[in-house]
């Protein structure tokens, strides 16, 4: 997760909530990708450290438990600077230019100059982030599958060039497709930091209620007496994710018969959101800054040790070691 701001409900439902479950079943590494924040926000780095702490608090609030998983900061694990250079040597330019999000983001973020070496190379950084832990799986949503596919291609190329005994040094990881509902923001588009349409995990109840009040609804339902359709309404989408079956049934009946108004329906959606957010916010408030720093230092240290094992194998396979066995 990139530390470009506090996390929102889309990040929670789309990723974090799954991670909380996965930590019980797998040995997991979760990191705050501060180096990736630089690929687009290189000109102003003043907020990266603050945002890193906020994201760590959001992780902990959501229920990631440092006893069950490793939580770390990418820039604190220097192997994340090291492997991209080596993998960059073997990655054809065409593979990077073909990444779907590359052209898309250059167009979407036209106000930023993204014609940089770092931005073109971010999939190599991403591949390294994954391969450093020699994982079996990467838990991502549909939108990230292309990145994992590229990671597999880079690993395959590495393994063809460089060998170390029978085992492949960089096994190709598989995608662990995690079900992730695409949550709409208050303007009806996908909830995203870049659109300014988010409900943050830290928003207090009055803010949640206010944001819901301004949220767009089924465009066909203009007057209170018009019948609506929750399947065409962003608030309906929130109900589908967060409300109980009983509330959802009331929403469908009430909206389709014009028995309820949008204000009432939004109130119920807000109730459901607040119920999800309350325990997260309480857990979050239980951590002090020194505690969070300690968790991140400790996690980064664990990640460094694991990543170094991989780097030792990478160096050995590439014969980039000073062994003193030339026989002179
Ligand atoms: P943002 O668009 O706010 O910058 P990111 O692209 O950093 O969010 O997304 C981080 C993670 O959260 C990704 O795994 C992404 O799939 C998930 N995510 C982001 N927005 C949503 C959303 N609206 N609905 C579901 N998942 C989302």
Structure description:
The protein has 328 residues and is mainly alpha-helical. Helix content is 55%, strand content 5%. The strands form 2 sheets. It has a two-stranded parallel ribbon. Strands 3-4 form a two-stranded parallel ribbon. Strand 3, helix 9 and strand 4 form a beta-alpha-beta unit. Adenosine-5'-diphosphate binds next to helix 1.
Outline the fold blueprint.
Blueprint: H1 9-25, E1 28-32, H2 34-41, H3 48-62, E2 69-73, H4 79-90, H5 93-97, H6 100-108, H7 117-120, H8 122-131, E3 137-140, H9 145-161, E4 174-177, H10 205-213, H11 234-242, H12 245-256, H13 262-285, H14 289-317
Parallel strand pairs: 1-2, 3-4
Helix pairs in contact: 3-13, 4-8, 4-14, 8-9, 10-13, 11-13
The structure holds adenosine-5'-diphosphate (ADP).
Adenosine-5'-diphosphate (ADP) binds at residues 1-2, 10-11, 13-15, 141, 143, 180, 182-183, 190-194.
Please summarize what this structure is:
The protein is mainly α. It contains 14 helices and four strands. The strands form two sheets. It has a two-stranded parallel ribbon.
């Amino acid at each position: 997760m990139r530390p470009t701001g506090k996390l929102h409900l889309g990040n929670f439902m789309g990723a974090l909530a799954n991670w909380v479950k996965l930590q019980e079943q797998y040995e997991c590494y979760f990191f705050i990708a501060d180096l990736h924040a630089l690929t687009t926000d290189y000109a102003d780095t003043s907020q990266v450290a603050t945002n890193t702490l906020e994201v760590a608090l959001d992780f902990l609030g959501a229920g990631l438990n440092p006893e069950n998983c490793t939580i770390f900061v990418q820039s604190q694990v220097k192997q994340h600077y090291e492997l991209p250079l080596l993998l960059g040597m073997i990655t054809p330019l065409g593979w990077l230019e073909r990444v779907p999000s590359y052209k898309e983001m250059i167009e979407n973020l036209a106000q930023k100059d993204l014609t940089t070496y770092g931005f073109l190379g971010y999939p190599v950084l991403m591949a390294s982030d994954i391969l450093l832990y020699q994982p079996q799986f990467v838990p991502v949503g549909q939108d990230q599958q292309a990145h994992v596919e590229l990671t597999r291609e880079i690993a395959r190329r590495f393994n063809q060039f460089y060998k170390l005994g029978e085992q492949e040094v960089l096994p190709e990881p598989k995608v662990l497709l995690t079900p992730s509902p695409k949550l709409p923001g208050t303007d009806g588009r996908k909830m995203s930091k870049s659109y300014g349409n988010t409900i943050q995990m830290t928003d207090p109840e009055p803010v949640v209620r206010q944001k819901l009040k301004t949220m767009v609804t089924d465009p066909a339902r203009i007057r209170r007496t018009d019948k609506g359709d929750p399947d065409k309404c962003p608030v309906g989408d929130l109900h589908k994710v967060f409300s109980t079956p009983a509330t959802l049934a009331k929403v469908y009946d009430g909206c389709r018969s014009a028995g309820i108004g949008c204000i009432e329906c939004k109130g119920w959606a807000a109730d459901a959101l607040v119920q999800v957010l309350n325990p997260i916010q309480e857990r979050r408030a239980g951590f002090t800054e020194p505690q969070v720093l300690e968790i991140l230092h400790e996690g980064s240290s664990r990640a460094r040790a694991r990543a170094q094992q991989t780097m030792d194998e990478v160096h050995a396979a590439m014969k980039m070691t000073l062994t003193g066995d030339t026989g002179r």
